[in-house]
Specification:
Blueprint: H1 2-20, E1 27-35, H2 37-44, E2 47-57, H3 69-76, H4 78-87, H5 93-99, E3 104-106, H6 111-123, H7 127-139, H8 145-161, H9 165-174
């Protein structure tokens, strides 16, 4: 139903906000096609790695949904995020890297070594120091805090609460 979809999208947004504001480094790995909420989860993390080739798409606007737009704009700039969201077109790995959606691109055969290097870098410092560094560097990424999160949730709820969400999604999927 429209109501259950609205609740589901609200829970997704709250999850994305929680991941985005964690006081520790977060890592997302993109393999293959990463779209919708998966692409939004990728953008919510502090470390965003493409393994091999990956493509991204943000199709929600195609059925009238506003989800993850602010976080994406923080990664790639507002004009780029708007263009990607409005078009719903696939974004290839090269574009994702060039615009800042991805922070690192690696090949699958070196994934374990790269993860070990990341863990070594992060475990070099104690927990309080890691959290303080993460908080300080992430403050530039998302200075709006709880008020901004509330605005993002309100935008999502307004877009999802318009009557006919289920039908809009079905029409989008059929197209």
């Amino acid at each position: 139903t429209d109501d259950s979809l609205l609740a589901r999208f609200a829970r997704v947004e709250l999850l994305l906000q929680a991941v985005h504001t964690l006081p520790v480094a977060t890592l997302a790995l993109a393999h293959g096609r990463t779209l919708g909420a998966g692409a939004d989860l990728f953008a919510a993390c502090s470390e965003r790695w493409i393994v091999g080739d990956a493509s991204f798409a943000f199709p929600g606007a195609g059925f009238g949904l506003v989800l993850g737009s602010t976080r994406l704009a923080e990664c790639v700039s507002a004009p780029t995020a708007a263009a990607w969201i409005q078009s719903g077109a696939p974004i290839d790995a090269a574009s994702a890297c060039a615009h800042g959606l991805a922070t690192h691109r690696i090949e699958a055969q070196v994934l374990d070594a790269e993860c070990d290097a990341l863990l070594a870098r992060l475990s070099r410092l104690d927990g309080p120091t890691q959290r303080a560094i993460h908080a300080a560097t992430q403050a530039a990424r998302r200075p709006r805090g709880a008020a901004g999160d509330a605005e993002d949730l309100a935008r999502l709820l307004r877009s999802a609460a318009r009557p006919g969400l289920r039908d809009r999604i079905a029409a989008y999927r059929a197209a």
